[in-house]
UniProtKB/TrEMBL annotation:
RapZ C-terminal domain span: 165-285
Organism the protein comes from: Extibacter muris
Name the UniProt record assigns to this protein: RNase adapter RapZ
Annotated positions binding GTP: 59-62
Binding sites annotated in the UniProt record for ATP: 8-15
Ranges for domain RapZ-like N-terminal: 1-158
Keyword hit for Transmembrane: no
Gene from which the chain derives: rapZ
Length: 293
């Protein structure tokens, strides 16, 4: 019997997680009143039951009863019921943006206060759950399909999960350094394909640009040192409990050199089950948009 409690910040992807688990055969219940959780657990332990995988969505929508959840979990521990807690997290800025896009009120902000105030109240109430979580996934930079892939690793393939998700992000300095970048590397010291007429309209995703950027000793040495440093940092970040690592690689416009080096770093790091990883090219199309205006 596998019993998963899905929880976390409102807007971080709990509904997506429950839907994915349902699609792979989990019996799912969302927003069950907290006092009924022990009864559900008892039903799951009945000999001969056809349910061998269940997921329960729990969050602050439970209202006053939510305060009883810690006591209920302690009682489940005493009875010996094994359960896993999946906690979905996201940054404040991303959560505010998601609420604005959907034009919904935060459950703890109501109609008379700001979304960010509701988010801070929710963080306080969920603090004990986050500490008890078996799996902590930060969805700030994740696409829906990327979240589903991570959940598939944990709950279908049963791979060991270390809770760290890496975003390799290329960007252009003239459009600003990413606010959420943990590590920032400047590759403007490399030869710039922009000044080569036949390469100007292409990007670091094109073979010709990649070959131009990487066809010198400086680029190869930089990549080697960068990979070595990141591979040193990753296990230390995991031990520290870090869940989200954003590695920013910047050039002038975010189209040629940074894209090339970001792709190269991603290729070096992607073949692992120790952490999740994605790549994003933030500014790759901005030059074309600016010129079109």
């Amino acid at each position: 019997m596998r019993f998963v409690i899905v929880t976390g910040m409102s807007g971080a992807g709990k509904s997506t997680a429950l839907k994915m688990l349902e699609d792979v055969g989990y019996f799912c219940v969302d927003n069950l009143p907290v006092p009924l959780i022990p009864k559900m657990a008892d039903l799951l332990r009945v000999p001969g039951t056809e349910i061998n995988k269940a997921a329960l969505g729990v969050d602050i929508r439970s209202g006053q009863n939510f305060r009883e959840l810690e006591k209920v979990l302690d009682e489940l521990d005493i009875t010996g019921l094994r359960y896993e807690i999946l906690f979905l997290e996201s940054s404040d800025n991303v959560l505010v943006k998601r609420y604005k896009e959907t034009r919904r009120f935060h459950p703890l902000s109501g109609s008379d206060s700001r979304v960010d105030q509701g988010i801070q109240r929710e963080r306080g109430q969920l603090k004990f759950l986050k500490k008890r979580a078996d799996y902590l996934i930060d969805t700030s930079h994740m696409l829906t399909r990327e979240l589903k892939a991570e959940l598939n690793k944990i709950f279908v393939q049963n791979k060991e999960y270390k809770n760290l998700y890496i975003s390799v992000l290329s960007f252009g300095f003239k459009y600003g350094i990413p606010n959420d970048a943990d590590l920032v590397f400047d590759v403007r010291f490399l030869p710039n394909p922009y000044y080569i007429e036949e390469l100007r309209s292409k990007s670091g995703n094109d073979r010709e640009v990649r070959e131009y950027v990487m066809n010198n000793d400086k680029a190869e040495e930089f990549l080697e040192k960068l990979v070595d440093m990141v591979e040193f940092l990753i296990p230390n970040y995991i031990v520290e409990g870090k869940t989200q690592l954003v590695i920013g690689i910047g050039c002038t416009g975010g189209k040629h050199r940074s894209v090339t080096l970001a792709n190269e770093l991603f290729e070096q790091l992607k073949d692992t089950d120790v952490y999740g990883i994605r790549i994003e090219h933030r500014d790759i199309e901005k030059d074309a948009i600016t010129k079109a205006r």
